[in-house]
UniProtKB/TrEMBL annotation, chain A:
GO MF annotation list: ferric iron binding; protocatechuate 3,4-dioxygenase activity
InterPro entries recorded: Intradiol_dOase_C, Intradiol_dOase_core, Intradiol_RC_Dioxygenase, Protocat_dOase_a
Record family assignment: Belongs to the intradiol ring-cleavage dioxygenase family.
Matches recorded under SUPFAM superfamilies: Aromatic compound dioxygenase
Organism in which the protein naturally occurs: Falsiroseomonas stagni DSM 19981
Keywords, in A-Z order: Dioxygenase, Oxidoreductase
Signal peptide: none
Protein name: Protocatechuate 3,4-dioxygenase, alpha subunit
Automatic annotation (TrEMBL), chain B:
Pfam families: Dioxygenase_C, PCDO_beta_N
Keyword Oxidoreductase tagged: yes
Highest taxon, organism lineage: Bacteria
Name listed for the protein in its UniProt record: Protocatechuate 3,4-dioxygenase, beta subunit
Intradiol ring-cleavage dioxygenases domain span: 84-112
NCBIfam families: protocat_beta (TIGR02422)
Single GO BP term: 3,4-dihydroxybenzoate catabolic process
UniProt xrefs under PANTHER family: DIOXYGENASE, PUTATIVE (AFU_ORTHOLOGUE AFUA_2G02910)-RELATED, INTRADIOL RING-CLEAVAGE DIOXYGENASES DOMAIN-CONTAINING PROTEIN
InterPro entries linked: Intradiol_dOase_C (IPR000627), Intradiol_dOase_core (IPR015889), Intradiol_RC_Dioxygenase (IPR050770), PCDO_beta_N (IPR024756), Protocat_dOase_b (IPR012785)
Keywords attached to this entry: Dioxygenase, Oxidoreductase
GO MF annotations in UniProt: ferric iron binding; protocatechuate 3,4-dioxygenase activity
Amino acid sequence: MFTPNALGYLAETPSQTAGPYVHIGLIPKQAGFDIFANNLGESPIGATTPGERIRIEGRIFDGTGSPVRDALVESWQADAAGLHHATPTPDGFRGWARTGTDFESGLWSIETVKPGRVPGRHGHKRMAPHISLWIVARGINIGLSTRLYFADEEAANAEDPVLRIIEQPARRQTLIARREAAGRYVLDIHLQGENETVFFDI
Amino acid sequence: MTALREFVPREFVPRDRDQHPPAVTPIYKTSVLRGPHRPLISLQNSLSEVTGPVFGHGDIGPLDNDLILNYAKTGQPIGERIIMHGRVLDGSGRPVPGVLVEFWQANAGGRYRHRNDTYVAPVDPNFGGCGRTITDAEGRYAFRTVKPGPYPYRNRGNDWRPAHIHFSVFGTGFAQRLITQNYFEGDPLIGRDSILGTIPDPAARERLVAKLDLEAAVPLDTLAYRWDIVLRGSRSTLFENRLEGN
């Protein structure tokens, strides 16, 4: 007897905003107190992790152009060889980090290594070096997924299978971090409006 | 060290966005300027989405799931002692073992331990308000805390949040990342809440309500509530086997 396997699936638990006090649970030091022996997500790398050390940073703007100063950003990336690791490697690479935007300036930053190229889906070319970002905040009802690419990877970006599915070339630019200095990349994220960042339904 | 290439990661079932709040929900005013106006671009899963960080018991401490003791300074916090527990399941109803669940909340009076919270209700010197745990082999999580109080916030003129606990959940892939809130059975503020009201489907809203669970209570000590969390399911179809050599 044919049994369609879509029956009996459970619906996903609905998302709710992380709220203005997300730091209590996920970055208690930023909320203003110290509670855990191990604060998760402080760094995606270890002291001996191979690869080019870089700093990525930026601000997140709302629909009026004002910086969002209570957001939480998580990053997920491959190592310098283009491999993802679920658990930390012996050289301390984890590939995952979380940080809050500064309560005054709205700036967030992560010190990491530049990721290598990762295989694309079957039949597609390798993806350009990128870091996946996930953003939650007060006023954001469901976490926003986007990617950070690098302005000095022009050739790889041009053949990236994900950038290429963005129909309007001008919108692809919203994902490309500019190189401000050696090893320092800046990506500003616009939640809404004229330069709205591309967000993905992953 | 676990290089994920050794495994066969599976693609996730596309998210049913009708179960979730839209980005812009005027009833919750802050969303009006923080919700994207342009459509999301649908992305079929690559390794960047099907992989994600996995945490172990070495990442957390032994008291991290006990909010009654993990910030106790001069005694225990004041409030209704409760156990919150449940299971983390995927869309097929299978338990999701070994994943990190984090939670944070206000104290019994509705005050958060956060430098930006200025509500008149006092902080509790013995309550931090956050914790975390890792699901067991059957996908179960549990923690002990005090029941949070409602609190007012600047939205509509007289808006009060129902008692709630914020949850952050990891799955096995970054695409399963979820933050949500749960509420308590029978709370009359639930039907009036602007944030829960951002979810269009009443049945979906109901799934965020924890149920009183007398069987899990500790007599003469601690009441219990039960709440299960469902993450996105994955497809049984493999796609990894053709990745190499592209």
